[in-house]
Amino acid sequence: MFLIGSALFIVTELLLLQVSVIRCLSLCQEEGWSCEVEGKSVNLLYHCNEDIGWNAVFEESVLTVPDGTHSITITDCYDVMIPLSFSFHSDLNQRLPKLSINNVASLLLTAAPDTLSIPQNIILNNIHWLDCIKRNTFSGDWQSIAFSNVTIDRIDMYAFAELNVAVHIEWDNVNVNLLDTNAIANVFIEEGSFKIKNSVIETMEIMSFGIKASKVVIENSHIKDIRLHAFNVEAETFIMVNNSGFRSVMPGGFIISAHHIEISRNRFGYLMTRSLENIRSNLLSHSTNPIYIFKQNYIESADVGSLHCNVSSFTEHNGIIYISDNKFVCSCIHLSWITQIADSEPELAQFYKTLLENDKNNTCSIGLCSFPLSSLRKMINTEYQCVANITYDEICNLYAIFSISRSSSQQANYLAVLLLVIAEIIVTSQ
Known about the structure:
This protein is an alpha/beta fold. It has helices at residues 2-24, 311-316, 332-335, 337-344, 349-356, 392-399, 408-429, and strands at residues 33-38, 41-47, 55-57, 63-65, 69-83, 86-88, 98-110, 121-133, 138-155, 160-179, 184-197, 200-204, 209-219, 222-226, 231-241, 244-249, 254-264, 267-271, 278-281, 291-295, 298-302, 320-324, 327-329, 363-366, 369-372.
């Protein structure tokens, strides 16, 4: 009798366990869902097709998933609406490790009502249209946030706010029409990075980008308008390379505090007065001196006092400022102010004197001709007014064989002419 009772107890336990498993995996039985069980982990997949339809709309404020769910993948859909809030059948403290949404025409994310139930990692890939990322969509503690090939019309105020990220935020080939005021506010990435690459941002509103991270990188991207105080970054390293656009960078457009700062190979349309003045050094690292590199940039138009960083902060911290190989569209009227500041503003004089040094190879171009930026001094009088008795052609002729804008064949022709003239002078003298 004891054995029979024990057997009944075991059978009962097995039946209860079976019911529990079925209950926990009930989502896997629903139309459109499939589950892959690996040990104690469950990977869920929702794949749109002709049979179930092309829309995946989850109207619940919290999506309940099987215990042990490791990832959710939603793919190949037209419309997707999903909450960033997940609960487990029995483990209330568990968090979803990964949410991945791929190949979607139109996506709507709804913010999590409970920050404890947000996924740890999210990947958005090949999203044709995300109309708006709304307030508090991304907040709380995350491991990583990655967008790739995503078009976003608008990122609202505080869409990324009070956000702690352990590893990284990365945007690759992301097109954003409007980054609203405080769209990215109080975002902290303790040991990781925020990277924007191969992306387009049409407008960055006032104070639209506020982040503290170990490293911030913006590369190979196109950013059109940067409003007042748009970029607010505190980092160990800030790198902005090979970007274009910058149709207008307003005063204080960049507020950057970092130990290593590099702004290189960018094309700036219009830098307004004091647009770069709030780029300053900090002492997050004490092993090396702070450094600011501004090189190989192309500047179409620069207002008075638009080029210097916060020079005093680098002086105070024994920092290094390196300025070289930058190119300007030449105009005495628009650039003669550089010489005046170099001669008359004690705090900024050294910065602008360095900009004018020939060995730093900062140049000014007009048409096919390029010449040292120091040639601005030949275009002004003692009162820093542009003189009319010298033309750009004369300046070009003066520096023609050193031109970096002319074709190699043109430079070779100039050199050949020069050698012939020298040969003739030698023969005549004999």
